[in-house]
TrEMBL record, chains A, B, C, D:
Homology family: Belongs to the glutaminase family.
Pfam families: Glutaminase (PF04960)
Gene that specifies this protein: glsA
Assembly notes: Homotetramer.
Reaction(s) the record says it catalyses: L-glutamine + H2O = L-glutamate + NH4(+)
Organism ancestry: Bacteria, Pseudomonadati, Bacteroidota, Cytophagia, Cytophagales
Protein's UniProt name: Glutaminase
Biological source species: Marivirga atlantica
Molecular function terms, GO-annotated: glutaminase activity
Length: 304, 304, 304, 304
């Protein structure tokens, strides 16, 4: 299918609408961003790309990075990873403590904050130099050696991390955190602080559209079965308590972050990254979701 | 792709394994079935079919019928149906009352019992002769004029319907049931009592693999966007609190019933119906899930 | 202590204030009452009584009758009654289904609707002619042979009983209801339909202030230990999710009803019944609570 | 009433029974205590005292100290204290996070860990030298200048404080903690580390049986209305999810600690402190509750 025209037409239509929603303000650094920005990049598995708007402006990818940490941890640890974190959607908001308490410290899925903290704990155990090696992994899959943590954002998160502190303490109580709490939190904050622009972000997800291999070099990142399973997890758990709605309207596996970014995957075809800072009450980008709904409706192409 | 060999090989492998799990016993009639039965039928959108085992033995499709009632109601009422029932996965078991109470009588999704009761209420309002017209709809999509309700099963359900009674009373309290409680319950019990064999069941789902049209006559049942959305709902909500696990292992939208049946869809390709009465603790067929995992792993083909 | 002056002064003070709150409207019959009425009666264990205002106007005692059914069932069945209903406060509203589902069908306490339904089920099993014999018991403890059910109120409740239907169905599912659901509901609605005025109501509670004996004839209704325990249950569970606040402000065991009545007990001293139809959001009489707070503050006398 | 004979007889009866239950082991220091110890002391408002068994052996009073911190904070702050903590029983275990999340960071009552953390936060704001001044308060009400914190116990708690860390972080998120988390936790751990023997403990509670005044000097600690209200809170919330059962069997306001101590109050008459380290599953002393049930049954005297 030729995406270029549909892509351009969907971009213009969304940009012409008045935007609504609120920029994330619980992290001081995120609140400073210009809320009117809007960028998109689509990259096919055959390495064609289309950009629109602020597609080259770096932003804080926040929770989208949970897909990268899951991919690396899953490849390192294999199926026994699921003893420590589930694969079921939660039906509650991203930072809910309630279900965690009922499930004896096993988070429902790795896309929730609690689950991403467990994945962070696993990576700290597995890696000699966790922050450095994780960054190398992200640079590898994105094909971009300049990707880095933002220490400014990481520090900003640390100041407002009461709910994450609560979550990790509950899991430590249930013996589902093996490393020092402060070390896990530090890794997690760095992970969430990574900055990318839409083009780099869409390229970073391409291995998930390509059965686990880089489209550029053919290098295997994870095996096809794991790529399929990560897509399945994104489909059911990637948008917190809006997962059903996103799946219903857009029909692609994907992941959002409170920085306003969304990355989505049409397996075998393309990845798409969209960014616009205003969020709806579930914490997902309003314009990002509007654009993806428009685009997939026009292409008549989804996983369903 | 040529499914025939993989199909045959997956069937044999599953049948050779010892089966475990328990036949549903909360409904007296269901408890009487021979637990060792196992049947599968795959039907492609080009109307090729492959059968194995007890694929021609009728069984009680139970909750799988919720997909049929949702399809008809959605076509009749359109998008305003979502004011009365959500599209989010629930994270709880199929008959949980807890979330219903929190969400002011709006069920989380139409695959939960509560949601299917609301859909039944909508059909009663929309149809002049609800039970008759619904049956005609099921006969149309299955291409089989002999499909019928089992009054034996419907009566058997009625005797043990305490939780469903509780659910419908809570929703009536919240004004989300418009018709008489007994009439809605009677319709719901009939709906769940429909009997089909695997071949007929897989053919009944083909319109969902074919953008809403019958593959035989080309007749439009629902529009493509609605077919996509029903698949999305099955993907996230079709297996109760095993939805994530099913999506993760198998990667197809589908729906299970406590009679031991499962119907699944690979959009654009095929539908598959599998039946084996022994259930796991989430109420899904043990052998059905094992078979579908085996089959999709061998075909290396899913929506992801 | 001489209560007369304090009583009169507290009555006047409350009556002089503007009343607020809303009359119960979920039962059509209750909504018809004049909301400005206010009556009080205090009766000592030495059979002195003081009345004020509308103390001789009969009203629907509603949930206050749960104390009578508990007293009779407890006397008939003894301590094994606590296998079917707990004695812990619930922390939730009177008709919550949530906790019931978590506790496997055992209601938290007999003052919740669910608990009173279990007590009704026990009485139906224990008594040959449940409605007749229960009425005789109430006539005995009140010393008033004209007390009766209001079939008007009982029918009115029946029409709006969705939540109670939900509760009893959940308990039936968990095997904690032995008799026919309709029979238990009919008994429960009759129980709640009893009408009394403040004077009769306060006299009906006197055996709980007098170690289980009637103050008039000395006849034993229940033994002292059971009277103490019923008072303890009222203290912790008599005002739904306002139990702590009532205990804190007033410091007497008591029970409220959505008809606007409250009966309270100072063991060894007196009982007091107050009635005023406007309710707060927890379903308790606004003026009733204001009066009792005023009165116990002035007497400086409570159980604490 | 002459308590001496009943007291002696109840003590002997309890001591003759085989003890069961488990010593608290979540804090290493508590696990080291000899589990067979048993002590009781009763002190009347006229300053007569009776001791039995290990009544002069100091033990860790743990959560019983929450009554002291509440008393001091309530006296300092007055009724506006209830904007930050409720007075309702919780229906859940002492360290549940669930209700806290639902109630927007306002703990249900000051006897739960979360509530005691808020009270600690208030004292830190109110006092110039919180730990020193609180200790002076406890020395004053106990009439014992040698009472002190155990730094050994306080450090031991700190190591295992994951759930308390979770609770305080949730409340900080909801803006219900004003001071530094570490400072509040340090104060709370010291508070819980106080050691007393039964005699001193019972004397420390006497002002609550004496309308807020010391029985020795007549000095006012808190006013009568506040004393009544603290008793009411203990009655409804002093024994976590066994509050109803304790009230039902014993009928006295009181407070337990995981060190195996219980202090109880019969207003106008006496206080009683009992200690035995083995706990039931709700975290209350098995022998302590058995003794108090025996004793109040024999005296036929409770608040009810």
């Amino acid at each position: 299918m030729d995406y270029q025209d549909i892509f351009a037409s969907a971009c213009k239509e969304i940009q012409s609408k008045t935007s609504h929603g609120k920029v994330a303000d619980y992290i001081p650094e995120l609140a400073k961003v210009n809320p009117e920005q809007f960028g998109v990049h689509l990259e096919t598995v055959t390495n064609s790309g289309f950009s629109f708007g602020d597609a080259s402006t770096p932003f804080s990818i926040q929770s989208i990075a949970k897909v990268f940490s899951l991919s690396l941890a899953y490849e390192l640890v294999g199926e026994r990873i699921w003893k420590r974190v589930g694969v079921e959607p939660s039906g509650t908001s991203f930072n809910s403590i309630v279900q965690l308490e009922h499930d004896d410290g096993i988070p429902r899925n790795p896309m929730l904050n609690a689950g991403a903290l467990v994945i962070s704990d696993i990576l700290i155990t597995q890696l000699d130099n966790p922050k450095k090696e994780f960054l190398e992994f992200v640079r590898l899959i994105s094909g971009n050696a300049s990707i880095d943590y933002s220490s400014r954002i990481a520090s900003s998160e640390k100041e407002m991390s009461y709910v994450n502190n609560a979550l990790i303490n509950v899991m430590k109580y249930f013996n589902n955190i093996n490393n020092d709490i402060d070390e896990v939190m530090d890794f997690y904050f760095h992970l969430c602080s990574i900055e990318m622009d839409c083009e780099v972000l869409s390229k970073s997800f391409l291995f998930l559209a390509n059965k686990g291999k880089l489209t550029t070099t053919g290098e295997k990142i994870i095996n096809p079965s794991k790529a399929k399973r990560i897509n399945a997890i994104m489909q059911l758990c990637g948008f917190y308590d809006q997962a059903g709605d996103f799946s219903f309207k857009i029909g692609l596996p994907g992941k959002s972050g409170v920085g306003g970014g969304i990355a989505a995957v049409l397996p075998g075809e393309y990845t798409i990254a969209v960014w616009s800072p205003r969020l709806n009450k579930q914490g997902n980008s309003v314009r990002g979701i509007d654009f993806l709904e428009q685009f997939t409706t026009m292409t008549k192409h989804s996983i369903f």
